[in-house]
Amino acid sequence: MYVDDSGTPSLKDDTSYYVISGVIMHIQDLHITGEKFAEFKKKYFVSNYKKDEIHVHEIYHGRNNFSELTLGEKYKILSALYNIINTMPFTAITVGIHKQGMEDQYPQWDTFNVAWTFMIERYDMFLSDCSDPLGNLVIDESENFIQGTTVNILKEIFENGTNYKKINNINQEFSFFPSHNINGLQLADCISYCTLKALNTCDKFRSYWDITKSKLRNRNGNIRNNPISITELTTYKTTNDKLTKENVELRDTIRNLTEKIMLLTPIKDEKVGII
């Protein structure tokens, strides 16, 4: 699994959400992602940014070599990008947390730790359904990951498990790499930034989310353990301490989760979510 993030876990900035996303690919499919990204870049990465990596934040905000792009050109590139991503063979797991909502509801929880915990739990569950259930972790050398407590958090999870489960299917020797030469990390960036912008109700990125949401980890056609109350991005939410009518079928699943997960429900103001 290739992992990247968007936003920051700190409350001392202007971002409402912190997002960690992972994309899972079988080693035999890596060349497909590379070929599709190469095809995309050959057509859409021209001029000053011909040799740049795919970094959605820089494209959208016109940073560095993308500074001369018009708004229409940005949307043309991004629409093409998310449409070609939808043809790639991968599964996505993405965790989005409303930071102030977490602080208000569960001040004892650390946003960064919680995001990683949910990510690793769900990756391990995904692997447990596979015939060859040992997976690796490749993590982007982002400022949050390097300067944060990622190494300590992961070592603790691997050694002692979480309140929900033991981690049995992930190789404990994880690695950090810069993203510019690794297609999987650039793909994880595309998913994480799209999630962040969609959670912040950016219409364009909501449409990109709709293109790629079929890539989310699922079982029997339903997104599993998915977000707790993130408006239209979810198939599960709570209202005033009661399950909404359309989610009665998820009640037994929710009841079987551990105490830690149960603490997340209900959330009246729709501020904390796991996708």
Notes on the structure:
With 275 residues, the protein is of the alpha/beta class. It has one domain: Nucleotidyltransferase, domain 5 (2-Layer Sandwich), CATH 3.30.420. The protein is 41% helix and 13% strand. The chain is built from 11 helices and 9 strands. The strands form 3 sheets. Strands 3-2-1-4-5 form a 5-stranded mixed sheet, sandwiched between helices. It has a two-stranded antiparallel ribbon with strand order 6-7. A two-stranded antiparallel sheet has the order 8-9. α1 packs antiparallel against α3, α5 (111-128) crosses α7 and α8 (183-199) packs across α9 (203-212). The longest helix has 18 residues, at 111-128. The radius of gyration is 18 Å and the shape is globular.
Supply the number of helical segments. Answer: 11
Helix percent band? 40-55%
Radius of gyration: 18 Å
Number of domains: 1
The shape is globular
The gist of it:
This protein has 275 residues and is of the alpha/beta class. Helix content is 41%, strand content 13%.
